[in-house]
Design goal:
By secondary structure, this protein is an all-alpha fold. The chain is built from twelve helices and two strands.
C-alpha cells in the first residue's frame, strides 16, 4: 500500500474499491471515513470536466512538466515500490501529443441524446449526473500505477497529482533496476511479446503481475519500448507486417511490440537524460 499519502486515508480508499477477492461492488465508503480521506487529499468529491476548459487545463499541465521530471519519478518508483510515481510518465507521454480539436459529438450516440466528444470522450458541458469519479482513478493509480493513461480525465488527474508531489531524485539502485528491465529484454527470443516480457520481469524486479503489466504499458506509450517507426500514441505509423490488431488486454502500442524491437535510445535520452549512458549499456 502506498506510503506517499496518509496511511489511514489510503486504507479507506483501498477498502472502498477492493477486497481480498477483487473489486468491491458497489463501491461504498462510510461518510466519516470519506470526509477524512478527502481532507488528506486521497479521496475527492465528484468533479465536472467540461470539454474546452479541461483540454486547456491539460495543455497547461503538459507545458509545466518536463520529460525528465516524469522520467525521474518513474525511476524512483521502481526502487520505492510506488506504482503511482511511474504513472505520470505514461499520462504525460500521451497527453503532450493530444491533438487540439473542437468538441465533436460521438457519431454513434442515439438521436436526441447528449453525448461525449468522439475524440477525447469528454462531455461538452457535463451535468451532475456526468461527474467523474476521481476516487477509482486514484485507487488504480496507487495500486497499479494507473490504468487509463490514454483518457483525458485520467491524464489531468494524474498530472495534477504528480505536480503536487515533491520532485524525486532516483538512487543508484533505482537506475540499476531499470537497467535490469532493459537487460531482460535482450534475453528474450526475437518474437517474444509484451506478455512474455511481463513473465520474464517477475524475477528481475520486485512487483506483482498487474504492476508489471502497467509498467510495460507505460514504457510502450512513451516509446521506450515500441515498434519501428512509432513516434507517439496519436501518430499515423503502421506496425510491421505480420503484427495485426489482436483482441488482447494489451493496449496500443504494447500489443505490437516484439523483443526484436528492443528499446529506443532516442526515448531514453528524452526521458532519462541524466542516466542514458548507464541505461543504454544494458
Amino acid at each position: 500500500m502506498s506510503t506517499l499519502y496518509d496511511k489511514k486515508a489510503v486504507k479507506i480508499l483501498f477498502d472502498t474499491h477492493w477486497t481480498s477477492k477483487g473489486w468491491r461492488s458497489p463501491f461504498a465508503t462510510d461518510p466519516a471515513d470519506l470526509a477524512y480521506a478527502i481532507s488528506q487529499g486521497v479521496m475527492f468529491p465528484p468533479v465536472l470536466l467540461p470539454h474546452d476548459a479541461t483540454l486547456q487545463r491539460l495543455r497547461g499541465l503538459c507545458d509545466s512538466i518536463s520529460p525528465s521530471s516524469v522520467g525521474d519519478a518513474f525511476l524512483f518508483g521502481l526502487g520505492s515500490k510506488e506504482p503511482a510515481l511511474r504513472s505520470a510518465l505514461g499520462s504525460f507521454a500521451v497527453a503532450r501529443f493530444l491533438p487540439a480539436h473542437p468538441f465533436t459529438a460521438y457519431p454513434q450516440a442515439p438521436a436526441g441524446r447528449t453525448t461525449f466528444c468522439g475524440d477525447c470522450h469528454l462531455w461538452l458541458t457535463p451535468t451532475e449526473a456526468q461527474a467523474e469519479d476521481l476516487n477509482v482513478l486514484n485507487f488504480e493509480r496507487l495500486k497499479w500505477g494507473g490504468v487509463r493513461h490514454t483518457r483525458v480525465m485520467y491524464q489531468v488527474f494524474d498530472l495534477e497529482q504528480f505536480r503536487a508531489l515533491a520532485p524525486r531524485q532516483p538512487t543508484g539502485e533505482d537506475v540499476a533496476l531499470f537497467h535490469r528491465i532493459l537487460a531482460t529484454i535482450r534475453t528474450l527470443p526475437p518474437n517474444a511479446t509484451a506478455g512474455h516480457l511481463e513473465k520474464a520481469l517477475a524475477s528481475a524486479i520486485p512487483s506483482n503481475k498487474n504492476e508489471r503489466r502497467r509498467l510495460i504499458e507505460v514504457l510502450c506509450l512513451c516509446g521506450v519500448l515500441s515498434y519501428p517507426g512509432y513516434r507517439h500514441y496519436f501518430d499515423d505509423t503502421v506496425p510491421p507486417k505480420g503484427r495485426p490488431y489482436r483482441d488482447t488486454d494489451w493496449g496500443i502500442p504494447a500489443m505490437y511490440w516484439r523483443a526484436e524491437d528492443g528499446y529506443s535510445i532516442e526515448r531514453l535520452k528524452e526521458y532519462f537524460p541524466k542516466y542514458v549512458s548507464e541505461l543504454a549499456a544494458a
